[in-house]
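Assemble and predict.
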Amino acid sequence: MVSKMAPKTKPVDNSVNERRLRPIYDWLDNGNNKKALQEAEKVLKKQPNLQCAKVLKALAMVRLGKSEEAQIILKDVQLEEPCEDATLQAMAICYRETHRPELTCQIYEAAVKKDPLNEEFLSHLFMGYVRIGDYRKQQQTAMALFKVKPKNPYYFWAVMSILMQAYVSDDTVCLTITLPLAERMIKKFVEEKKIEAEAEVQLYLMVLERQRKYDEALEVLQGPLSEKLASGIIETKKEEYLKQMKRWDQMMDYTEELLRSNPDQWSYYVHYAETMFEISSQDVTVVDRVKTFLFSLLEQERIKSANNLRGPYLAMLYFWQQLQQRNFDASAVFGNFREFAQEYVEIMGDKPCAFQDLKPFISSLPADQVTEFLDCVNQSVGLDDPSRQSPKTVKQICRHLLQLQLTRFLGQHDLLGKEEKTLLSRELWDHYLRTKFLNAGLLTTDIRPNDGYALLAAHLLLDTWNNDPDVLDKCLLLLETSLANSPANYHLKLLVTRVYTLAGYGRAAFQRYETLDIKYIQLDSLGHLLCRPLLSMGLPYTASPLLSSTLRFYTTHARETSECLISAYKFGSFGKIPEFTQFCQRLDSSAHFASVTTERMLLDLLLDSSSHSKLVQTAGGMFADPDKDQPDWKTCVDNRDCGVFVSWDPPSKNLHDDIVKTTFNDEMKFARLRNRLVHALIATVALSPIWQIEVQETKNRTENLNNDQTAEHPKDKCILPGLLQELGILLTELKSESLMSHSQFSVQSPPPPRLYTYVENGSLEPILILMDIVSKGQCHPIGNDEIRQLDNALNRIVESAQSSVASEGFWRNYVRLERVYNAVETLCLCVLVVSTIHAIIKNNNALRKKKKKKGETDNDDSVNRVKQFSTLVSCVTSNMKKMEALIDEFGVQVCVSRMKLTESDIETAAHAITDEINKNLSQSPVSEVKNLMMEKLKLLETCNL
Amino acid sequence: MTTLRPFTCDDMFRFNFVNLDPLTETYGLTFYLQYMAHWPEYFQLTEAPGGEIMGYIMGKAEGHGTNWHGHVTALSVAPDYRRLGLAAKLMSGLEEISEKKQAYFVDLFVRVSNTVAINMYKNLGYIIYRTVLEYYSGSPDEDAYDMRKSLSRDVDKLSVVPLTHPVRPEDIE
């Protein structure tokens, strides 16, 4: 059969080809890549030059994990410069799946060169540039498209591409050249009355805003083009422009107009207050105007009989607070803050949001009015004696909880002693039990209205904790009991997870954490709650899958986001384009991402190294590149949602911004240290003779295939000393800093960074000593000094694991476990380095033997080398044995701690719950670290010469 | 007190008070981003004075001819911010946009067991247009009500004449 030559000209749709290719597509669509591959090969037998079949074969190979072979095929096809749509599209899929979007641009560039008027190709080329963010080429391609087909979207794609250049380029160029060009382009269309869509008007506004031409933008809003804009946008934009131009008088009128039509829109009040202060510096009478206006809004609500809006009531508190903060006599101007607050409580106190609403403002209540205010709130509950009587309706529960929460927030709980707090907690628990009847008929997915009692009771108990195990038991009991009654309440789940974490029960914490069903973006915003802490609690095997799924989220998002970016162009949602780009960057620069990536690598080395050759395989498989595999530490961002825990603590005790900032910085420092550590370890392993055989060969093979893709392996010895030096510098810097004390961490704060114990215990030193031995060269005999230093360093970390009372505060038990894990991890990593030294010495000895003439005996030097190495091994072994004994002892210690509950506690709790907690607490928290130790001890045993 | 504004990417980092509730699904990024890319005006959120996200609505406009309509894909309010009429507010915003886009009606799907939501939608003027059999997968599968409210363009209210027979999910346009 004569096969068709690869089409050099524009191909016609070939029905025969199409029929032949169809089954390959079908198999691919069904995910049966093996069949697809076979089918493609079958077609290629008949038509060896059918490009599309070649590419589909490559695609099947990519999906079967044979990327290297697929690349050869793709490269060949690319050289033929295909010009057929199906082939190109299939190639684009291959490139997308192998993360090579830039190649998609190359093939379409070639196709467009051959067929410059092909709208389809140009459009694919444009999207290709969008994927790699080449704005200038986007612009050129969009204009070429517009010339081929004068459609509005193409024209505005070009304008948007210009605007994106302005977003990234330096200000002078963009203000004088780039942006005026974009503006002229749009104006031309406006004048020619060619504007069609809302998106085009929005883009016009974006271009004007970027040039700070608010005057003109305002004209657009008031002109005929505004008809194309959806409601909502006009109002927000007009406010923004007036504000930017500081036209405060106009702003005042306009904001009042907006508030009159929507007195519940919070952002209007914020702008209104801002405007008032701007004007008041010139004309103080404006405050009276504002007061009159706000009171008129309030009056409207006051005369309503139901469905009152929160806005006008909270506005009074907000404006009062703002005036006070800017040294106005708010009481004289506005009236009594307490009365406004009471009015709000009266109207909204029966809604569950009441506390959150008041929280930003209520701390402005003058100290001498707190008691009076709380009395009044108390009265609004409508219970004669709330210490004995419990609410009879859900609304009453809300009011009662509000009163309790405000009492705590206003610092009244701080005045109570331990006994009183325990009593109050007990009283709240009684309320919880007595109001349970109100939960009848609720679905399992409904949060119980009385859960607030349990949460508050738990918070009170935690106040009194101070590592008293009885308190902890009680706290867990009431949280687990209320969670069993209200399985949808995530506040309970979060708190119970945290209490198990504080207590050092990692596995129980993990079980509860899993019920929160945290996924996708939440892995980034909430992962910090338990992801890294699982390691600190000595659960490397439990942490492993969690780290993997988190990493998967990070590595897939870029592809997903770029597809959505393309959609935004297609649908003309231009405002979303810079937003998506920034979002993508925010995920890429996530500190959690940096931390998880490094911890994942370290954990792989640690868990996937049962033998030295396995270790080499694992390390080699990482294709590590110490320069490229680290983020720009300076631009890393904090994506944690630190506000996820509810708290009614007074502002003085609440989660401070500085603890959020400090933990972020310290987590980053730790991630950086660990990043350098893992690369140093890989560079160490790369010096093993086994690496030369197993890894280097594969690497050479792939490099021949594709020079630019594979990351450089640490092939020469020079990179280890450099990394060790970097580590040394980082460590010296860290040691000179004063680190935060664990006692500053509250129940709701982010977990204390591992950095503190890690540096304090000298966790890194023994590994550094060993890596240094490798780095100094293969022939260097291990000196007595080095062994002595190593023994001291190892001793130190084992001892620090032993000293359990070294820290105080809520996180004491957690920190205790962390020290144990630090020691175990360091010892195990040391074993990995020792196994590498072993492989090197063994290989050298073998080489020497080969060189040696028969009958010659070993010289003193090599005998000494073997002797010194066994001393080194026994030093590590003895420290590991010491640690093993320590772990056993530790395990026994914690396992005996069981719930000790009084008779009255038992009465109120289901036995099943007590049993379950006991079961959780009886799991030894150290079994995983023990397994890890045993495995590495076995590896160490193989290290004899 | 509410700020109603378009949902942005950054909101995903802090929508946990809404999304940790088991009835609110957290989807992959593409789901949210595609809605933002395609129908940004149909994805709105409400924020409390303290900055907490109280709830959000996701929707779209689709269909041809007299079937051109607004659709509510997801509506979710954090447990602590319920009973404030936020859902109604978000719904009316979506209806307003659909009016502006000259849609004939707005529709939504709801689990037949979710009586609280069904009653709320009824109070907002929605009727049960039809039952969609086994629309929600699970064990067992659950039927959905397709609820509708006509907009001013549908002068004769033809879009809200209830069907007498249930339909299968594959028969939904």
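Residues 16 and 129 of chain B are 33 Å apart (CA to CA).
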